[in-house]
Amino acid sequence: MKRSIGIALVLAAAALSVSVGLAGEPAAKGDQTARIAKLCKELGETEYGSQGACEQLIQIGSPAVPALIEALKDHRPQARWWAVAALCNLAPEEGYPAVVKVLESDPNPLVRSTAVYYLRHYRNKAKKDIWPEVEKALADKDPEVGRWALRLMVEEGYPEVDKRLREILAGGSSALRSYALSHIRDMGDKGKAYMPLVRQLLSAEEPRIRYDAVATVVALMDSGQLDFLRETFRKDKDPAVKECALRCITVIPTPPVECFELFVEGMQSGDEKVRDTAHKLVVKAFKQYFGFGAKLPLPMREAALRKWQDWYAQNRAKLEWHPDLRKFLPQGTREKAPGKGKDDAKE
């Protein structure tokens, strides 16, 4: 969690500082050296103070470069990752070897992650061939560093990205596969070219990989999603993967009404968390409440399930999906939009 928060802060700071840094406001000559030293010290202090210091150092520009290079040796990891973010934003020629050294030898994976991701500025501003260094980072001993290297490859259009994605799906770390699958989900129809490799991951040993593979398969399918999810729910023994199968029903563009039956299967699970997830999803999709609770004793759960099933049997034929509401309603019972009254209806 701490690592994710740190990366998020660096991403936010860099996004802000690119526009601020281009302004290039000159600082007063007399106190510039002292100001730079003070700001470099602040890089390792409070998180939001560090962000502000990073932005101001980018505003100062080239006069801050020597101090930023020196700050890469600071004993505080936080100071080093903000320093490398600022240095890469400025992209000075003399700073590149120092950034590469960070990638090769900094002991903190968050600092190395920041360094590899912000090599993009050296590519775009200084026209550096960064890919040999990014390739090395992809194989970093910490998979989080590799994940950010892969993200850079994807976002910057690395020519070998298709090959790397296939290699990762075939045998990469869990973290790399997770990001690769996330990217493939976002590719739309182009992602279908990876479907055979993705389907192989449905039988991977790690539940986390199977979880991501299930979500990716559903995102790429044009039809038959519910049958696939039903099979997954029944076949996979891991509760988290079962939850994923249930949650993925909600991303089917037009789910069939029979999805109710899979939610009911989930409510009958021996795992409390799976039961709770299934109940929340069925309530959201069908807007009914029959006193079910995942923690209730079995007889009480069974009684509530019978009420659900009776309601479904009576209403199934007239239930219709409303994509804007993302729920099923009996025909003719469409809710009025908020604020609509009789006068509005006449218009």
Characterization of this structure:
This protein has 347 residues and is mainly alpha-helical. Among the domains are: 1-22 and 37-60 and 69-119, no CATH class; 223-331, no CATH class. Helix content is 65%, strand content 2%. The protein contains 20 helices and 2 strands. It has helices spanning 2-21, 32-42, 47-60, 65-71, 77-90, 96-105, 109-117, 119-125, 131-138, 143-156, 161-171, 174-186, 195-200, 207-220, 225-235, 239-248, 259-267, 272-286, 298-315, 342-346; strands spanning 319-322, 327-330. It has a two-stranded antiparallel sheet. The longest helix is centred in the first third of the chain and has 20 residues, at 2-21. The protein is elongated. The model is unreliable at 16-25 and 340-347 (pLDDT under 50).
